[in-house]
Amino acid sequence: MRVLVTGSAGFIGFHVAQRLLQRGDEVVGIDGFTPYYDPALKRMRHAQLAQFPKFQAHEFLLEDNAKVEDLYRQGFDAVYHFAAQAGVRYSLENPRAYVEANLVGTFNLLEAMRQAPPQHALLASTSSVYGANTSIPFRETDHADHPLTLYAATKKSAEEMAHSYSHLFAIPTTMLRFFTVYGPWGRPDMALFKFVAAMAEDRPIDIYNYGKMQRDFTYIDDLVEAMLRLLPVIPPSPSARSGTASAIDSLSPQAAWRVVNIGAGSPVGLEEFVNAVEKACGQTARRNYMEMQKGDVPTTFANTDLLHALTGYRPSTPVETGVAAFVKWYRSFRPI
Questions:
Q1: pTM assigned to the model
Q2: Active-site residue numbers?
């Protein structure tokens, strides 16, 4: 297959591109190398991908509509869209970056795809769209109408834009709601990277809401496996469906569009997560307990029944295993 991967130098985009290349697909990657975190890490990821002869790299922002349209004319069998401004807390500091990257960038990609729809477009979303939802675990069919941050609002808006384009221009689309992804080559702004870096430098680690939080930590290899299994699971158009949709399916009645949770399905307490980090690092952390930050929620918890029904797969890597793999990578990336 010929696959377009946006955000190919990002944490998740890099891993997906690498797996596609390893299985023999042709991958065209786009990344803007923004300075939200050290671009050197992003360039190291792209350098890994450049070892594959079937990888083609392009450096520009999706906000540049002319470049998006020009590149997309090459034609693609599938699209994985990960390019975005990430981070819940940063959206309080620089909200405009989220509007430009997550809304304008996604709009430009959708406009390009309407001219020649791929067989399947898979667009990254986030568990943050569930916002103030109190129904636990989070199901794709739950209402997600009360975002608590602009980051969540832009990602939910991207879901809705993609739905309208799927309906109007017959673009088969799956929205992927990720739950706290972690692992090797992870982002420096994420908790695990921060914890390990602080402990390596004998600094205290910040623990929000005094440790009274749970996250559905999802190991990167599990996430990628789920996404590759979803690639051939193309949402059917309303006219092509037979029978009644399953009660757990999030298929739109008006479009070839659905949303799928990808999470571990087993939330872990923050204190337990820190214990796993301590074990992997072989040292005790100095803990700085803090209040909950604006926009955070106390618990995320994915119901993964739909993912399992569609692919026969559920993420299963234990947190201790995933954390240990990250620490091993970190020590090779930045020796302790």
A1: 0.96
A2: 151
